[in-house]
Amino acid sequence: MASIGQIIFGSMIFLIVVISGLIIFILAIAFSVSQGTVESRSPSTVGNLAEDVVLDCRFLSNSGNAQFSDVSITWLKDSLSGVVYEYKKKAAQLQGQNAQFQNRVQLFSDAISMGNASLLLRNVKLEDEGVYRCSVNAPKVSGTTSVNLRVAAFSAPTFNLESNGSLSAQANKWFPRPEVSWLSQSGQLLNSTQIINNTAGIMNQVFSVLEQPVKEDDTYTFLIQNRLVKAVSEATVSANRVTGRTYFIFSSASTKVPSLQLLFTVIFVLSANQ
């Protein structure tokens, strides 16, 4: 049977272990808090071929929106040697920059002190697709976030009234190859013909015509979609002319959204704009 001394000694050891654990826990929380946060508001981004895209990266200290005077920012791309962009001592440090990004990337220098480490990538190419990592070191802030850039081509269609009273739509820039469809004002699928031509090697030109005359003052919905982008276009016929507006919806996954889910999305967009 343990003596009183042994019991007291064991209790003291137990208390020391518990207190040590609490101290480590508190220090870990304090350290974590002091590091602030580095995050992206758009961790999955779709870039439009031959156009510019912004890879979002923001950093914030625990004390709030303080201005930062000493900031280091490094952008890397997975499976690629060298840096995409590096910023230290209030200047770009591009000695180790990969040749793929020379003269094509920059930060928003005027916004860095306010916590903006976003990267502007010009003239997006297919080989730019991949996972990018933004690392920030600043007073009370240290961390890394990632942005998955996928590359597509997309454009809004133009609408025309044909001589037989039907409605046509044409979009000149789509990749990967899309599917198209028309919906009536009530959401019914309409019959149509379409031609999708391959141009410039990878681009697809879309042309589609409704197989029936349209009604004046009705609104028709034209859908173009591939696994990355959906264009939802509303075409309203009035006084022998057509007015159209287009919404782009970007997929956060690599697979195509099922048709039923797309239909619900379209109905939601249309109802929100009534």
Automatic annotation (TrEMBL):
It comes from Carassius auratus. It comes from the Eukaryota. Keywords: Disulfide bond, Glycoprotein, Immunoglobulin domain, Membrane, Signal, Transmembrane, Transmembrane helix. Gene3D superfamilies: Immunoglobulins (2.60.40.10). GO terms for molecular function: signaling receptor binding. Residues 51-150 form the Ig-like domain. It is found in: Membrane. The chain crosses the membrane at residues 7-33. GO terms for biological process: regulation of cytokine production; regulation of leukocyte cell-cell adhesion; regulation of T cell activation; T cell receptor signaling pathway. One of its GO terms (cellular component) is external side of plasma membrane. Pfam families: V-set (PF07686). InterPro entries: Ig-like_dom, Ig-like_dom_sf, Ig-like_fold, Ig_sub, Ig_V-set, IgSF_BTN/MOG. This is V-set domain-containing T-cell activation inhibitor 1-like.
